[in-house]
Amino acid sequence: MNPLDGVKNYQVYYGHPTETILKDMQNYDLVIIEPLHYTKAQVEQIKARGTKVLGYISVMEVATWNTGLMSKLQSGDFFTRNGQRVHYSEWDSYLTNIASPHFQGLLLTEIQNQVIAKGIDGVFMDTVGDIDNEHLNNPTVLKQQRDGLVNFLKQARARYGDIAMVQNWGFDTLETSTAQYVDGIMWESFNADTIKSDAWSQNMIKKLQAVDASHSVKTLTISTRQSADSHKLAKDSGFIHFHEADAYVNWNAGLVTRTADTTPATKPAETTTPKPVETTTPKPAETTTPKPAETTAPKPVETTAPKPVETTAPKPAETTTPKPVETTTTKPVTETATTPVAQPTTAPTKPTTSTKEQTSSKTESTQKTKAELKQEKKEKKKAKKHAKKHAVKHETSKHHHAAKGKMCEKVKHKTTGFLNFFKF
User: Fold this and answer.
1) I need a labelling partner for 360 at 20 to 30 A (CA). Which of 48, 64, 94, 98 fits?
2) Residue 291 · residue 284 · CB < 8 Å
3) Under a CB-based contact definition with an 8 Å cutoff, are residues 352 and 268 in contact?
4) How many CA atoms lie within 13 A of 147 on its CB side?
């Protein structure tokens, strides 16, 4: 049984929770969050009426601000091309080598500490689409990375059982490698004006429907424009849709009523200016910089612990983690590498403070210490950066490449609208 069965609505939110937000989350069938911002008690509160929760980790990228995770990486955990690490300057993140057993161990530990330990139902794996985007033209490396991802998923299944696992993008990788191990895939930038007129998108809808029929993999879609038309198109296609207009950093209150309850939850009396929760959100034990949410990813701000803040962000910081599964240094994968990854082990199948949150009164804000204000400013800056990544990174092009296997193209969406809202 797919843990996403029965999910008819969801929302992605990488910011910090307030009491109002925690209560409103109970109105959704599913929410995707940056787990670093939540305590176990807060997760239990979200789930009190049956809402499922996914925590963000970034699988194929690590951002430099995530100092906790960066400090644990070995040279073989980075993907190198011509002897150089692949760096995304717009996100200040590095492409990782999922074929590295050591890096797989770090991700598994992240799941244990930020997902399992907090009672979260599963993981949203951002940046999986980097496999198709970066390695399509090198079949040897492409196979290594896909085999590495499959090995990671098998280990996660063996350790954590039937947790929900959703990947962001990577349509070709889904079809060829991961369909039997994941429960869902996210399609960002599912905008009706593009999808309806694009042959590649129409063909992809049919492919995802076929994967769902054969492997029970649900498709979660997100639009950034034409909300009503995009929602209808997704529903007609059998997909689960969410309209995101502000890059995952603001909670969209009161959009749905619980579909599983006979008695809908009462909306909070005041939702325009929710009072922030007294600062009780635990900070990661091992990080000098609080992680946004996270994400991205999707890429959940970002967390290796979905993106996001990928780890789709959005793409989130690091807590003290047990020793990874394997610690032997792995030689970096390069474009010229021909040695395939080790055979996968046999196992069972299958970001960020809200920019609109304000203090309830001038008195409360004046009571904050300078240190608290400085820390809050730092977290907001990281959150915005993570959110921007999730909002624009995976915008699909209106003209997709026709090369065989090119299921998705990383095309940066025009950021004018977002820049009018976010000031970086």
Assistant:
1) 48
2) yes
3) no
4) 17
Give me 327's structure tokens: 């610690």
**Residue 107 to residue 77: CA distance in whole angstroms:** 11
Q: Which residue has the tokens 């979905």?
A: 306
- Flag whether the pTM goes above 0.70: no
pLDDT along the chain (424 residues), means of 10: 96 96 96 97 98 97 92 97 95 97 98 97 98 96 98 98 97 98 97 96 98 98 96 98 88 70 41 42 40 41 40 43 43 47 50 40 48 61 55 42 32 34 37
pLDDT at site 278: 44
Q: How far is CA 395 from CA 150, 194, 298, 369, in A?
A: 25, 10, 12, 41
Q: Are 326 and 72 in contact (CB under 8 A)?
A: no
Tell me the C-alpha distance between 354 and 349, whole Å: 37
pLDDT of residue 311: 39
Q: For residues 230 and 243, give the distance between their C-alpha atoms in angstroms, rounded to a whole number.
A: 8
Residue-level pLDDT at 335: 58
At 77 the three-state DSSP class reads helix
Helix (H, G, I), strand (E, B) or coil at 32: strand
Q: Are 116 and 157 in contact (CB under 8 A)?
A: no
The candidate with the shortest Cα–Cα distance to 171, out of 154, 150, 186, 152, is 186
Joined together, the tokens standing for residue 281 give 């959100």
